[in-house]
Amino acid sequence: MKIGIIGSGTMGSGIAQVAATSGCNVKLYDTNQDALDKAERALEKILARLIEKGRIDNDEKHRIQSNITYVNSLKDLKDSDLTIEAIVENLDIKKKVFSELEGYVSQQCIIASNTSSLSIASIAASLQRPERCIGIHFFNPAPLMKLVEVIPAVQTSDSVLDETVKIISDWKKTVAIAKDTPGFIVNRVARPFYGESLRIYEEGIADFATIDWSLKTVGGFRMGPFELMDFIGNDVNYTVTETVFEAFYYDARYKPSFTQKRLSEAGYLGRKSGKGYYQYDESGKPIGVLNGTSSAVEKSLAEQIFDRVLVMLINEAADALFLNIASAEDIDNAMTKGVNYPKGLLAWADEKGIDWCVDEMDKLYNEYHEDRYRCSPLLRRMKRQSKTFF
Ligand code: NAI
Questions:
Q1: How far apart are the CA of 114 and the centre of ligand 1, in A?
Q2: Model pTM?
Q3: Measured from the CB, is residue 31 less than 6 Å from ligand 1?
Q4: According to the model, what pLDDT value does residue 296 have?
């Protein structure tokens, strides 16, 4: 199978590695020669490390490398069966590239975008044959993260969806099919992990380190929300939140936080700038926490923090199911395989009990009277009918 990848940055080069490892013939295109050279050098390093770890041998390394050709003309992608675009997140630029690409490729070629925040319908609208357009959303780093969200637009044909799911599954990825709505599954359902933790901090209930400790120790999350925001970058994470908030017509549930906005404005971006919610040494190791240090935490406080963040995540996942964004299985797979949550949120809801979920949401709503804390109608209906998700 011939794959064309547009953009050889973080995502494009990772996707190229995934496709080449599965035996596809990949053409990786970028307008910037430095970006192409960098991608080629980075792959050499990654594969050398995989040899050191005993995961692949030298022949396999050469096979993967020889499956990728680095090209600097879009026309070179003309034989592709599937193209995946991973260039700058700008609708006008993407549309321009897509309409030019359509002039080179065959009628059957599937044209996909790896966009995180633009609607697939708006990108598809740039094509003469929009039914061949689909979203294929990888997670960073693409070779390591198992999840790929596949997003059919309103224009996408069923056969293009089926074929895309088959190709991505052949690349040994877990596919979650998502509706073409802001944030798809993961970037929508994960919002409270950050937003509710920031709110807990802003209310003065606990400091950053205490909230992180609670979610890791009581909840089993690999990283706390503040560690994770520092890792992702406060600028990047804030922009995703703001984009999702605007795209949902300012639904209070996705409201961004001033705390994060100020940190971002101050240049406290996280690990990459040496300072965020934590301070970091040159190797990126945390050496202190902003605004105080964490003291011993009472178990009841840690549980209270964890329960509040968890129920908000469950409510978001339940509402995504209620609005048919994806199936229950795909919503749970998305969170465990896209962002390494210790459990699927709907399975977690079953474990905690649907009654508990509704009662906790109602407690928050009664306390604050904010729309942010409205309980999903699906949870309420399930409580009435004594149902579970699985
Ligand atoms: P990046 O900045 O690392 O790479 C973008 C590459 O595209 C650069 O090498 C640039 O030279 C090239 N480029 C820009 N305009 C071009 C054009 N007109 N034609 C050809 N090449 C062009 O960006 P990154 O992070 O890889 O993101 C790419 C896309 O993937 C964006 O749509 C982003 O939203 C999406 N995405 C990013 C994720 C991430 O964690 N970085 C995760 C999932 C999706």
A1: 9
A2: 0.93
A3: yes
A4: 56
Question: Cα–chain-centroid distance for residue 266?
Answer: 25
Q: Is the CB of 115 under 6 A from ligand 1?
A: yes
Choose one of 17, 29, 36, 88 to mutate for the ligand 1 pocket test, by most ligand atoms within 8 angstroms of C-beta.
88
Please give the full DSSP string across 286-326, using - where no structure is assigned: EEEETTS------HHHHHHHHHHHHHHHHHHHHHHHHTTSS
Cβ atoms of residues 179 and 173 within 8 Å: no
Predicted confidence (pLDDT) per residue in 6-49, tens digit: 999 999 999 999 999 999 999 999 999 999 999 999 999 999 99
CA dihedral of residues 197, 200, 202, 204 (deg, nearest 10) = -140
Hey, what are 176's tokens? 């979650």
Ligand 1 probe mutation, 5, 8, 30, 41, most atoms within 8 A of CB = 30
- pLDDT of 273 reads 93
Encoded tokens for 192: 């409270």
Place of tokens 């992608």: 77
d(CA 276, CA 268): 4
What lies within 8 Å, CB to CB, of 54 at 6+ separation is none
CA of 95 to the centre of ligand 1 (A): 14
Buried b (16+ CB within 10 A) or exposed e, 17-33: bbbbbbebbbbbbbeee
**DSSP states along 352-384:** H-HHHHHHHHHHHHHHH--GGGPPPHHHHHHHH
Neighbours of 114 (CB within 10 A): 23
For residue 23, CA distances in Å to 10, 26, 31, 110, 268 come to 21, 9, 25, 18, 42
